[in-house]
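Minutes, project check-in

Agenda point 3 was the complex the collaborators sent over. CS summarized: two entities, 554 residues total, and the question is how they sit relative to each other. Sequences were read into the notes so everyone works from the same version.
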Amino acid sequence: MRATAKIHKLAWMETKLLLRDPLTLVFTFAFPLIMLFVLAEVFGNSTADRDEIVFRNVGAIDYYVPAYVALVAAAVGIVSVPVHLASYRELGIFRRFRASGVSVWTLLAAEVLVAFALTLVGAVLVVGSTAAVYSNKQPESLLGVLAVFVFVTLLFAAVGILLGAVLPNARAAQGAGSILFFVMLLLSGGGPPPEVMSGVMRYVADALPLTHAVRILQDPWLGFAWEWTSFLAAAGFLVGASLLALRFFRWT
Amino acid sequence: MGGEPAVHVEGLRKRYGDTVAVDGLSLEVMRGEIFGIVGRNGSGKTTTVECVQGLRRADGGEVRVLGLDPRTQGGELRRRIGCQLQESALPERIRVWEALDLFAALGPRSADWHRLLDDWGLQGKRDASFHSLSGGQRQRLFVALALVNHPEVVFLDEMTTGLDPAARRVAWELIGAVREQGTTVVLVTHFMEEVERLCDRVAVLDHGRLVAGGTPAEIAARHGGGTRVRFSATGRDLAWLEHVPHVREVARHGRQIEVVGDGPVLPIVAAALVERGIVPEDMRVEQPTLEDAFLRLVGAEQ
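CS then shared the predicted structure for the full assembly.
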């Protein structure tokens, strides 16, 4: 088979396997939806009777929907992919692949495709279910949102492959992944709006890739101007994570 | 290609820290043969095979498989060989048919895996997840995966470990059939019966070195401790038996006489006895087996 056909075959199989994995189902699909609907019910989408500027001065639901699309990408990259890759190494599944002549490039390309497919499914769930219930804002610039979506998915796929490369086993990956996931959830835009955060919280938030991912996805969605500093920060995470992932990836 | 060996190993060395796993091993596997590698646990069998497959980097020596160097051409090599590894697994939730379908697609030519399901008795488990398979079923699936791309050389590392005796016999027949199709088979095992049934030639390893090599019959004859002839005889002095050709020693336990010798010792001793008017009715012969040779060569498990 040609290399691209192999990548597709492997990616499709891996997607099926991750969809059978309860961890993925919970973190990627169930948890973001539950959180999002709770927040939407609590805050509503009205900007009236606010004493100060919060949620970037848009409705809370308008603020959270693009944020939770980015969160889905982060859940795939920070929980699913690392646990998956670390357990493959731990159990000798990588050895099996390698012994069958699968190259590193085939494997990593397949993992990126898998991350993309899962994030897409999660994002469609988030966007579709909220649109069905609320009359929240849909993307101002669809093209811009799609471009950033691809970029953010790549970013977290790279972070996921890096974590999967450096964490020794599935248990460690699950522990580290869950902690990172919840810190990012709370500080990067899935929790309290940035305007109410303390200085320390904002300082930590700026060091997290999801904070920037949320901002650059919200901008074209809400019709704001591009924020180049967040773009550069996200691009920095993407390049850094990719280089480190390639440097540290091990079959055994 | 022609007479070029399928596997050529010369002076292979590999150590893990202070432990020497393979210590200057040389061997050659010819195309189309079933070659056995036997030895106690820790004798370097698996390490040797893994260096040959390019899954481990040897510290020294020369290895060529199908003319390729596993150290520098590992990727190309692994697409032409099949490997059943001792320590490996599949994703828990992959189904049997999905595993075969996936690995068939990952190989160089698309292969039809449906026959392998039947051959290796997995048809009934087609839709079962890997996680739900028994040890023997997993083992058969791994062998099937090693064969799915019609490899030129297939390496089977303890293929029949975990199989029940009936499944083991089926596996032997199937491996025989694989060879008939022209595939070279390298078999790592510690079942001597398996070696005697299947292997054209065998290498006996101990402490990472080759201690004996040849056909199973040659090794049994050379290292098995000789042919034993037993019979009973009363009273008479049989010391002269020691001077009969091919006899190495004679021992008496009461009425039981045991003669140890080599080659055609049985007919020669029988003829000599008859010539002297001794016609024992209970003469038995015990040929040395490969197992005898193996135990004498490497000792019992410690």
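Noted in discussion: Residues 7 and 106 of chain A are 5 Å apart (CA to CA).
Follow-up: revisit at the next meeting once the mutant set is ready.
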